[in-house]
């Protein structure tokens, strides 16, 4: 498994949702977004002032994974678990 997060050098330093891709051993690639609850709340609070998504009253993201901590090792562990439990293809979109 290979986790690709684009130009992000360290996930811990990100302040919002992060788009990522994961390549599994078969060569298949899946994409999604990963964030913490607090990051999502900040986003909705910002939308309350900008008017997006009915003033922050809802949020949706395709293939969203919510984690308790946005850290490189934790995210790798989550992806490994999703693969091990055969949930990856349901949780993320294949590209």
Written overview of the protein:
The chain has 95 residues and is of the alpha+beta class. It has one domain. It has helices at 37-50, 52-56, 72-84, 88-91; strands spanning 2-4, 18-23, 29-36, 64-67, 93-94. Strands 1, 2, 3, 4 and 5 form a five-stranded mixed β-sheet that branches. The protein is elongated and about 45 Å long. The two termini are 15 Å apart. The model has no long low-confidence stretch (mean pLDDT 90).
Keywords summarizing the entry:
95 residues; alpha+beta; 4 helices; 5 strands; 24% strand; elongated
Question: How big is the Rg?
Answer: 14 Å
Category from helices, strands and their pairing? alpha+beta
Uncertain residue ranges = none
Give the termini distance in whole angstroms: 15 Å
Average the pLDDT over all residues and give the rounded result. Answer: 90
For the sheet with most strands, the description reads: 5 strands, mixed
Q: In what range is the share of β-strand residues?
A: 15-25%
In the residues, how many domains can be counted?
1
The helicity comes to: 25-40%
Helical stretch tally: 4
What are the secondary-structure elements, in order, as H or E? Answer: EEEHHEHHE
Q: Note the overall shape.
A: elongated
According to DSSP, the number of beta strands is 5
Task: Describe the structure concisely for a colleague.
By secondary structure, the chain is of the alpha+beta class. Helices cover 38% and strands 24% of the residues.
